[in-house]
Design goal:
By secondary structure, the chain is mainly alpha-helical. About 70% of the residues lie in helices and about 0% in strands. Helix 1 packs parallel to helix 4. The longest helix is centred in the C-terminal third of the chain and has 23 residues. The model has no long low-confidence stretch (mean pLDDT about 80).
Length: about 100
């Protein structure tokens, strides 16, 4: 939508940015790390721009796709680890050792 569209909602960009930040939090970027991600990291997927540059240029979908793929990739890795019985046993042993110390 564009500003001269009667259905244009000026808060929509803010809502979408908040949703992206929520996904970043789930991936593990919080406590200021998401600020560095938005402003300092350039991505080929965004035309070698930072997410902020892409967002301000109106490429909301590009930024959202980048984060969605990153989220999907992190979920796939977590699933792979959860399905590895040797790794899970090792983590349980380490956790038990920490709790008994």
């Amino acid at each position: 939508m564009v500003p001269d569209d009667p259905n244009f909602d000026p808060l929509e960009g803010n809502r979408r940015a908040a949703a992206v930040n929520e996904l970043l939090r789930h991936i593990g970027l919080s406590d200021g790390a998401e600020t560095r991600w938005w402003n300092l990291t350039r991505y080929a997927e965004l035309g070698d721009r930072t997410p902020t540059q892409a967002w301000l240029a109106g490429d909301h979908l590009g930024v959202e796709k980048l984060v969605a793929q990153w989220y999907a990739d992190s979920e796939a890795v977590a699933r792979r680890y959860r399905d590895d019985p040797d790794l899970m046993a090792s983590l349980r042993e380490r956790s038990a050792a920490l709790h008994s110390a």
